[in-house]
């Protein structure tokens, strides 16, 4: 048994799987994962180096042989899926480019002819810029073109298959990187998602436990201490979730379901979710747990709260205990049979039913006490606690539903792109392609114009620097340039040390480069050092191995200084070209993303109203109905909306980092990253409120029956009244979201406004827009007061009706039909949740509007002048 455990531990460590299920957490740590990546990088370098210098390839492509280890370290990535995706994108671009350039060389175009070569280079650059959707996928093909054209213009004799030789060395390096990624510590994106989901589930379970404990506290200060711990865990969970959607994209390049079946064989009878289903599960749970947290933060620890928590404490803690057992069994590879696990699921279901009954009885007794004592139940207390219990019920329901192993999988229908959509010109891609073409054209003069070639010693490093410092935005490009310059200096220093130690000897040079690659391979996994470490790795490979590969080795000191000098010139040119040629500022993309988020909020509010009408109200008759077939379709629609919200918010967090290096002072008066960070948090608040309304709507629809006797407590008129409330609220919020979206459109950079709108906006328009905001926010505050008063009137009418019934000699059972029907009880809680959520939605919209107003005022007026 001991050997089996050791083997299982080694297997999990080697395949980077199931870190949370380990008795040795220091082995399954972030440190060791980074060490694994650096070892993988070193082995790829050594294997490709052996192929380059220990096989006949050295004689076939003597001057290009150093590109094999260079390509291998450039392509290898953190996960198998990411490495395969990078290799696939590069090869799909390199293959047609290589064929085209071979034909060009065969017919003699561009050979020692500057004009012809320049035209062909521009055509190829446009193709690469258009095909490469991201800057990273464009760099290697552009470098290959740079090497090819620099050679055919300047070299007196070149082989007829030069382009295929260049393609061959790149392809060998790419294949080596893919094979090493598959063999040495294979980190599959599929397994990384599984690990992250397990980590997130465990931490969400801990957040849930702490929030429940804070909710059950009698003192608000003690509750806030626990909520501080919750906030810390929330940040860790959010960081783990931030890359889930990106990793899902790269997991498509892996046999995900096969890997899940192999590694999750013991859990297949317990839980068997696809990667997208797992991502939907943890995202939904995160929003519900965060909603619990927000309610406890606003909770009034008064007599109502004290009496309620005293009555439901035992059943609530029992449910939390059962839920923790389920999460532990889902996330850890414990030896448990399906029967034992289903017994735990049954315990959770019974605990859920017991909590519902306890809360129902507690509410009834509280209503009796209010009648007898003559006190008033505040709607805020009643609705807020119903909101909290709804989150508890929904979380338990989610866990029970995903563990049902006999359920039928719903196959998601992917939307097919029509021929018309394929033929529509993608103007953003065309602009990127034109920008790439111009930059390559400027860089090519340093390798094609004879006078400049002589002045700058062939000028190839300038050309390559322009190829490698391109970015998707100005901020991204500037960040890349800064990292490249620093990485070049670090790599050049180690290159000189290597030369002084071993000279021009190949294998001792490899020995000197191995510890350097091992160290910076570890550094490369750090978020803010990725590209700096990559440049520091390949710079000594280029200098030491590339210098030796030449027909006459250049002195080491001259070669290093030449590379640094030309890199500085290339980066300087890149800065100017990035700013003046179709600049795409991260600030503009951030504002566009926020506009899209606000429009998505508007569409979500409208869809809630529309779906509420479709699922619950029938406009032709006046009755109430539900359609189980529509449920699945609507749930998929809500899940897609939620994923869009989360993707927008994640992109905005990244955009703020790139804006910090952009010259924002040229376009706006003040840029405050703190305000934008606050804005993102408020967007997340609105997202979780909309998600709660969606869940409440589906809950009502699931348990709503046509029998009028079953729903007469709520009254048919409630659903129609709530429909009017939703209609009024959606109309009001639509106008506010549109107005706030226009703020970000008005405050974009002058270039973006001129290019997209064809006009400039004057300061008078800014002042007019700012004046509108005060009146609109006042209207929203009045809406909050109106909703609070309406809900309070509803609770007061409920008490009055109860008193009238008792006076007439009735019994409480006639008034509370839901005491005999658990489903009606869930409807009441869901309805209360929707009422509470509408108020929270308006309040969050007010906070969001205030922050947007402050941002707009900071950026467009001189009211706030920094010191």
From TrEMBL:
GO cellular component labels: plasma membrane
Membrane-traversing stretches: 37-54, 60-76, 83-103, 115-133, 140-158, 164-189, 430-453, 459-478, 485-501, 507-523, 530-549, 569-590
Keywords: Cell membrane, Membrane, Transmembrane, Transmembrane helix
Location of this chain's protein in the cell: Cell membrane
Domain of life of the source: Eukaryota
Membrane disposition: Multi-pass membrane protein
Name the UniProt record assigns to this protein: Integral membrane bound transporter domain-containing protein
Originating species: Adineta steineri
InterPro entries tied to this protein: Memb_transporter_dom
Residue span(s) of domain Integral membrane bound transporter: 450-576
């Amino acid at each position: 048994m001991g050997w089996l455990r050791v083997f299982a531990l080694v297997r999990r460590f080697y395949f980077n799987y199931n870190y949370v299920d380990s008795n040795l957490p220091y082995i399954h740590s972030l440190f060791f994962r980074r060490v694994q990546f650096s070892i993988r990088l070193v082995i790829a370098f050594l294997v490709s180096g052996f192929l380059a210098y220990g096989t006949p390839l050295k004689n076939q492509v003597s001057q290009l042989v150093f590109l094999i280890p260079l390509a291998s370290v450039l392509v290898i990535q953190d996960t198998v899926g990411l490495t395969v995706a990078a290799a696939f994108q590069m090869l799909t671009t390199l293959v047609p480019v290589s064929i085209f350039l071979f034909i060009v060389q065969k017919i003699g175009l561009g050979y020692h002819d500057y004009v012809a070569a320049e035209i062909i280079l521009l055509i190829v650059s446009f193709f690469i810029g258009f095909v490469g959707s991201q800057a990273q996928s464009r760099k290697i093909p552009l470098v290959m073109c740079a090497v090819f054209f620099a050679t055919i213009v300047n070299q007196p004799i070149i082989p007829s298959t030069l382009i295929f030789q260049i393609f061959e060395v790149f392809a060998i390096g790419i294949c080596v990187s893919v094979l090493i990624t598959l063999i040495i510590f294979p980190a599959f994106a599929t397994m990384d998602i599984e690990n992250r989901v397990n980590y997130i589930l465990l931490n969400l379970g801990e957040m849930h436990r702490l929030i429940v404990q804070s909710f059950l506290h009698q003192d608000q200060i003690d509750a806030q201490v626990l909520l501080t711990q919750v906030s810390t865990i929330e940040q860790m969970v959010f960081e783990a979730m931030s890359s889930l959607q990106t990793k899902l994209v790269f997991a498509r390049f892996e046999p995900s379901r096969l890997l899940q079946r192999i590694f999750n064989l013991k859990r297949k009878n317990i839980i068997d979710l696809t990667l997208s289903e797992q991502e939907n599960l943890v995202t939904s749970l995160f929003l519900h747990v965060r909603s619990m947290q927000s309610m406890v933060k606003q909770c009034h620890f008064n007599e109502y709260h004290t009496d309620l928590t005293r009555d439901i404490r035992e059943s609530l803690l029992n449910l939390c205990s059962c839920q923790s057992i389920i999460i532990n069994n889902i996330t850890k590879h414990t030896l448990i049979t399906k029967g034992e696990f289903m017994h735990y699921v049954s315990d959770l279901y019974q605990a859920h039913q017991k909590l519902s009954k306890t809360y129902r009885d507690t509410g009834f007794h509280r209503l009796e006490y209010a009648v007898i004592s003559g006190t008033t139940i505040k709607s805020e207390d009643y609705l807020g606690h119903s909101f909290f219990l709804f989150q508890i019920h929904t979380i338990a329901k989610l866990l029970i539903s995903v563990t049902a192993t006999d359920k039928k999988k719903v196959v998601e229908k992917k939307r097919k792109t029509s021929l018309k959509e394929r033929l529509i010109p993608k103007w953003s891609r065309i602009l990127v392609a034109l920008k790439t073409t111009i930059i390559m054209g400027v860089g090519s003069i340093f390798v094609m114009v004879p006078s400049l070639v002589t002045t700058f010693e062939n000028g190839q490093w300038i050309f390559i620097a322009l190829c490698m410092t391109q970015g998707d935005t100005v901020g991204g490009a500037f960040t890349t340039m800064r990292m490249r310059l620093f990485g070049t200096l670090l790599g050049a220093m180690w290159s000189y040390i290597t030369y002084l130690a071993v000279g021009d000897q190949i294998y001792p040079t490899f020995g000197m480069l191995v510890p350097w690659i091992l160290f910076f391979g570890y550094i490369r996994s750090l978020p803010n050092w990725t590209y700096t470490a990559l440049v520091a790795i390949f710079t000594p490979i280029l200098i030491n191995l590339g210098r030796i590969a030449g027909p006459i080795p250049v002195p080491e000191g001259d070669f290093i200084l030449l590379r640094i000098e030309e890199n500085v010139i290339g980066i300087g040119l890149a800065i100017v070209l990035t700013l003046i040629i179709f600049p795409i500022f991260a600030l503009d993309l951030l504002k566009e993303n926020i506009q899209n988020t606000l429009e998505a909020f508007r569409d979500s509010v409208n869809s809630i109203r529309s779906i509420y009408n479709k699922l619950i109200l029938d406009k032709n008759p006046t009755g109430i109905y539900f359609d189980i077939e529509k449920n699945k379709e609507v749930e998929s629609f809500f899940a897609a909306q939620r994923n869009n919200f989360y993707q927008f918010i994640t992109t905005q967090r990244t955009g703020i980092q790139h804006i910090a290096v952009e010259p924002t002072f040229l376009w706006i008066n003040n840029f405050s990253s703190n305000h934008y960070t606050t804005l993102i948090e408020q967007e997340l608040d609105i997202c979780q409120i909309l998600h709660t309304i969606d869940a409440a709507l589906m809950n009502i629809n699931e348990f709503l029956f046509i029998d009028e006797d079953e729903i007469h407590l709520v009254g048919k008129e409630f659903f129609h009244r709530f429909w009017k409330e939703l209609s009024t609220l959606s109309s009001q919020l639509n106008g506010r979201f549109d107005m706030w979206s226009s703020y970000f459109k008005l405050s974009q950079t002058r270039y973006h406004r001129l290019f997209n709108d064809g006009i400039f906006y004057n300061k008078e328009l800014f002042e007019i827009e700012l004046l509108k905001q005060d009146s609109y926010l006042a209207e929203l505050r009045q809406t909050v007061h109106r909703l609070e008063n309406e809900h309070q009137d509803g609770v007061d009418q409920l008490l009055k009706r109860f008193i009238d019934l008792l006076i007439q000699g009735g019994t409480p059972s006639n008034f509370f039909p839901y005491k005999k029907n658990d489903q009606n009880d869930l409807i009441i809680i869901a309805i209360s949740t929707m009422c509470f959520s509408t108020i929270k939605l308006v309040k969050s919209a007010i906070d969001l509007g205030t922050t947007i107003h402050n941002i707009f005022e900071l950026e467009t007026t001189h009211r706030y002048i920094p010191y």
